[in-house]
From TrEMBL:
This is G10 protein. It is found in: Nucleus. Belongs to the BUD31 (G10) family. Pfam families: BUD31. The keyword Nucleus applies. Its main location: nucleus. It comes from the Eukaryota. GO terms for cellular component: spliceosomal complex. Keywords: Nucleus.
Amino acid sequence: MPKVKTSRTKKRPEGFEEIEETLQEFTKKMKDAENDPHEGKRRVESLWPVFRIHHQRSRYVYDLYYKRKAISKELYEYCLKNGYADANLIAKWKKPGFEKLCCLRCIQSKDTNFGTTCICRVPKEKLEEEKVVECVHCGCRGCASSD
């Protein structure tokens, strides 16, 4: 018996048209970053642009909903459900001490040698002066909340 096609596509919430262009730009940048050649780079360096764009896109949706209150809750949840923003990263941004968190890998202790967080989470005043700190996971140069 053939499958019956039904249109169960949910309509986009009101106001999505206003942010759709910006989200499409992020999608285009993400595709470009994924397709960039990675010759001459370390293996982890080729993923850094992808992490940055992912952070920017999630921060854009977060700012629209929590800071500027420019979008509705329905539109915010639609963006989370359809992958326009990372719900886990946004959940961390709402907690004190994680307001500037760059990615979730920087707070996972299993990815480090000594079972601690990433070097980019250390406040800059605690580090040696003129020392450039760069995260191995995402290329961040410091996402501690006290910076």
